[in-house]
Amino acid sequence: MGDVIVVGVTHYPPLSMLDAEMAGILRRTLRDPGIPEAAKDPSSWPEAMRVEWGDDEAVSSAAVHRAALVDGLRRVRVALDEFDPDVVLVWGDDQHENFHDDLIPPYSVLCYDDIEARPWAQAAESAMMAGKPNAWGEPGDLVRTIRGAHETGRWLVEQLIGNDFDVAYAYRTLHHPGLAHAFLNTVLYLDYDRTGFKWPVLPMPLNCYGRKVVGAKGFITSMADDIRPDPPSPSPRRFHALGAAVARAFASSDHRVALIASSSWSHAFLVDHTHRLRPDTSADRRLYDALVAGHQAAWLTTTLSDVEHAGQQELLNWFTAMGAVQELGLSLEWSTFVETHCFNSNKVFAIWR
Length: 353
What we know:
Elements: E1 3-9, H1 24-29, H2 37-40, H3 47-53, H4 59-83, E2 87-93, E3 108-110, E4 115-117, E5 144-146, H5 150-162, E6 168-170, H6 181-190, E7 201-206, H7 236-251, E8 256-262, H8 281-293, H9 296-300, H10 304-309, H11 316-328, E9 332-338, E10 347-352
Parallel strand pairs: 1-8, 2-7, 2-8, 3-6
Antiparallel strand pairs: 1-10, 4-5, 9-10
Helix pairs in contact: 7-11
């Protein structure tokens, strides 16, 4: 029988930046002509947001936010070191990186061989790092080899198809070189202290952005833009069932596997009812409280409309993880909720064994 651990992390792109750039998404949003000027006035913001913004546009707060994220990443990394998996499967969103208008699968398995990634030279728009200095001071031409899991990926595709999940797969990249940011950042951040990341990685991108994956290119638009919505993503329940199927396959194998949900939670730039200035923290807290209490029903009754209203599209990666947790009967060992108003998204870290 296989052995499985499930963890959740963030791949928040500005964590790769210097502190002075970490609130860049909010600064960009404040220049959006489609947002009423009154909403942009800090005096109209919640007190906690005003405090975080401070008198230096959140530059001082960035160090505090970074410390909380790095602490969470280090806790998860210790768990991975202790577990020492044969392979690390990452559920992440494809933000118009390989999922383009020539093909949008609901989800896929990337059966790659080893990848020579260039984190700073190949930074896509969704990673926001092109031409910018990074937090580690690494050179722009850095090459990092990330081990692939080609054979495990092929095996998993066969298992899922046999379990009535008609999953797409790929042996090589399509539009985006190297690894898309959800997967590359997961490796970079879980190796924040640069001690190495030895485990093969099996990326499993999900179409989290659905109605915004092509028209909005899975990223920031102006509130004044008239963008035709694309067809929706799969439902939260379907992703939950997919996570259960993946967990079931690995549990019946001889693999030792870490399953990682990689994303922040509600994204401010997707939340129209906050004028895209801050995340929907109350919606995030509702699901986090259910996560801590082990109340799967709260997750299973959350609809796609709920997710889209709260800007929680990337949280669909975590619905997949919750399906794995329920399938395997795992217990929550540790979690933390990192709340923010100025750094685009709340972040959650969790470990289930």
